[in-house]
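Exercise (ungraded).
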Amino acid sequence: MSTYPIAVNALTEPHLEPIRFGFGRGLLAAGEADERVVALCADLTESTQMHLFANRFPERYVGVGIAEQNLVTVAAGMAHAGKIPFASSYAAFSPGRNWEQIKTTAALNDQPVVVVGSHAGINVGYDGATHQMLEDISIMRVMPNMRVIAPGDSLEAERATLAIAASPAPSYLRLARDKTPIFSTPDAPFEIGKAYVLAEGRDLTLIATGTMTYHALVAADLLSGRGVSVEVIHVPTIKPLDDATILTSVRKTGRAVTLEEGQVAGGLGGAICELTAGAHPVPVLRLGMQDRYGESGGPTELLEKFRLTGALVAQDVDRMLQAATP
Amino acid sequence: MVSSTYPLRAATDPEALLDGRVYGRTDDDARLKEIAQVLRADIVRMLAAAPSGHTAGPLGMAELLTALYFNAMRHDPSRPDWEDRDVFFLSNGHTAPVLYAALARSGYFPLSELSTLRRLGSRLQGHPERKALPGLESTSGPLGSGLSQAAGYAHVVQNIDKVRHRFVYTIMGDGEIDEGNVWEAAMFAGKYRLGNLIAFIDRNNIQIDGATEDVMPLTNLRAKWESFDWHVLEIDGNNVRAVVDAIQLGKAVSFAPTMIIAHTVPGKGVPFIEYDHRWHGKIPTQEQAETALRCLKGHA
């Protein structure tokens, strides 16, 4: 039995809240706990939920205007002066626009800048492809000395923010705009670098990150009704990856499916393939964005179009299993 | 420490290291001029021993680094992390040789290490890496990010920690300010009235593809910075007294960041390198280095 505490009625009547809201609360709490914590934003203070911190600690909040290159390089300078800067914008712009500055002045320079990319994924919806950041996990994961964290719900975002502030190092924190289901409980564990087994199973390992973990739980539930036993692993830290937890599971099940709200190339799907190919080769089905951009539409419409809902994931997994049956 | 051999005898010859002297801070004009020439000689030797590097920019900036490390800045080579120090961010990281020379001549690391520039295992990376060498405040090379980092640091000191006696410095190349990141930082520093921030533009009029005014004109440079609410000074950047005086004036202006447009001669001190943009990213041969050292000695 998995010991991870899942919220009561998480699958049937989930409580919904944007992941970024948890970040806003977490940053405020981190600011209360440690006066070295400072916040910077590129003209999206309320969208990224930094207004809670900015209102409480006006002197420790820095608005930089619509200037993402300056956002992260000012943060690097502040980090060198002894602060723990959280620098937020939309993920499409940061790290979308300022990758080199993050690499040189935060990661290579080893300054504890936390790049907070809000509104990541397809759920940004109507704004369309320009604003749907789908490549962030891929481009941040390849950067040496950078941690990549994508919380699964708002409660976990709060925990992750506090954990990052408590262990300063170059980090990328991925947040989402839309209201998404809360599957964890307030006392659920979070440790940077840990993956969590949410449900145990025998037939395959379903590995998900960020907003997709809830859909993985739904898919596993549907598949269990069809007699398929699915082990669900939640990977809030894509880097450093919890190799041991993942390998233990795939050694048992012999099959993996990855699920993410972003490009599978280089994303969680890429990370799992790299790990398993080297340590324990198994077939891996990578679900997520398949080398294409998004488009305008409602968040749910888009998740359905790109087959990223629990029900559609269950169908695709079923199809995979049938294809594999001799 | 690297163990490779160097083509230039002078690079490892103790005699050539001008008795291995380390300098402290001074306000004596003659001594400051001497230090600038010593840095130039170090740059020439260092580059002649290196596999590659940039020559013109570092030579032209010798008085700027001299004024900072041997006059204006409060720093302590025995405590690179001294929390009350003044801080310098080299933004145009390709001019690292002049910074390495200034740090070595201040006593941050042994002078003999200068001859390891760009070699495998050296702490003197081709472009500065903060973690590699004591005294470096940042990692730089990709252009346009030094002013932002200096501004972030200055903002913490002045507006968050509210420390009044510390100053933050940076040097950018003139071609470097083609970068948009610079102008984002310019707006930021103006908005937050960073009176403790003193920046230089090394106005030597060259960049890789040719003259700055041909590649991308920097017309009305002074007016550009004034329009961003900066206090702007324009000086002869190869006159060390002018540099020292400009820094003092910049420190006295507390309501705005100061931009010192330092007109310099690229390759200053070595006639066959001066003004020639082809020396931007080229190193001297041993023969050229020996000629250059003779030129520098004549002017010391």
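Further reading is listed at the end of the chapter. For now, observe: The longest helix of chain A spans residues 19-33. Residues 290 and 307 of chain A are 11 Å apart (CA to CA).
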